[in-house]
Amino acid sequence: MPDATFTAVSLADAVIGGDRRAIARAISVVENDPAGAEPLLRRLFPATGRAFVIGITGPPGAGKSTLVDALAGRIRNGGESVAVIAVDPTSPFSGGAILGDRVRMTGHAGDAGVFVRSMATRGHLGGLSRATSNAVLLLDAAGWQVILIETVGVGQDEVDIARTADQSVVVLVPGSGDDVQALKAGIMEIADIFVVNKADRDGADQLVQTILSSMALGEAPRRVPVHKTVATTGEGVDALWRELQGRRASADAERMARQAAREEARLREIVAGRFRASLDTVVPAEELQRLVRDVVERRADPFSVASGLVARAAAGLIR
Ligand SMILES: Nc1nc2c(ncn2[C@@H]2O[C@H](COP(=O)(O)OP(=O)(O)OP(=O)(O)O)[C@@H](O)[C@H]2O)c(=O)[nH]1
Ligand SMILES: [Mg+2]
Fold first, then answer.
1. Ligand 1 pocket, 302 CB below 6 A?
2. pLDDT top residue among 128 and 123
3. Is 228 in the pocket of ligand 1 (CB under 6 A)?
4. Rounded to 10 degrees, what is the CA torsion of 174, 177, 178, 184?
5. Rounded to an integer, what distance in angstroms lies between the CA atom of residue 299 and that of residue 319?
6. β 52-58/167-172 pair status
């Protein structure tokens, strides 16, 4: 069946049925055409809410992909299916070379219980985290039991993506200097679990101490567990997975609170997105430029102009 014959309904049904090609196509839709993805996501939404979503974030080269690979192997041994989303905030491409380059899931080729996909930014603010959270919805609806999201760095996108996860794992490595930087950049707040990877290197215990002491120094001291791993050999991965599993089972109240926060963020994002779209439809670009000139030349003030635009965009929404 050619792709063009997929309607939102048939695509949604194929996704729910677990058809891998339909899932790949649906992820492309949420990546490239957020508004066009709405009918699809509406239909899928009732089938979501079951997956255990884990974010893995940290500086470049920390061993996130290696760790994701090892975790995926551990999860498969337990009999659950696992989907991996590798988020690449720097590249304008998705799939293809980057998939091969950044995600090395070599041990899982041909395993029907593993799905791997990379996603890239489309350049608009918040676009990546929205596309990622929608991809999570798709995979959840398709029945993937555990979803691992790998993100690089410590920017706003990572913080937003962390919000879409049930648990966020922050990966740091000894002796890189990135550790202190990451701790300063507010990544502390999003970590549910710290991993000191490359623990086969000197300085791992020292880094564990640095993390523990910077937690103790924070304004609201937190107790975030710190695990040591050697992702390349799998050392420590079993303990990390057991910690994650423990949280999945026990943190029900917390999980509900997170879900509420996530759905509130999603609602706000949808409303803001529709408002922006309505503004663009109702007010032609040339007219907007005229209004801008009026403001620049002080014939009008931005507050009154904005009030007028808000009224028109809102009217456009109700139509
Ligand atoms: N010695 C040692 N090397 C490791 C370990 N984990 C990963 N590596 C190596 O570190 C390098 C980077 O690993 P990746 O898994 O690609 O790191 P990443 O964080 O996914 O990198 P980006 O996605 O590019 O940010 C590779 O050469 C790995 O083999 C470890 O525990 N010990
Ligand atoms: Mg990687």
1. no
2. 128
3. no
4. 110
5. 31
6. parallel
Q: Is the CB of 118 under 6 A from ligand 1?
A: no
Ligand 1 centroid to residue 288 C-alpha, Å = 49
Please say whether the beta carbons of 313 and 275 come within 8 A: yes
3-class SS of residue 55: strand
Distance, CA 57 to ligand 2 centroid (Å)?
9
Specify the 3-state DSSP secondary structure of 91: coil
DSSP string, 185-252: TTGGGG-SEEEE--TTSTTHHHHHHHHHHHHHHSSS-----EEE-BTTTTBTHHHHHHHHHHHHHH-H
Which pLDDT belongs to residue 95? 39
Residue 71 confidence (pLDDT) above 60 = yes
pTM across the whole model = 0.87
- Confidence (pLDDT) at 197: 97
Residue identifier of the C-alpha nearest atom 3 of ligand 1? 198
Tell me: the pLDDT tens digits for 170-214? 999 998 766 666 666 666 778 899 999 999 999 999 999 988 888
Could you tell me the pLDDT band of residue 101, with boundaries at 50, 70 and 90? very low
Do you know the residue count of the chain? 319
**In this predicted model, which residue has the larger pLDDT, 221 or 48?**
48
Give the distance, in angstroms, between the CA of residue 89 and the centroid of all CA atoms in the same chain: 11
Taking the C-alpha atoms of residue 297 and residue 282, their distance in angstroms, rounded to an integer, is 24
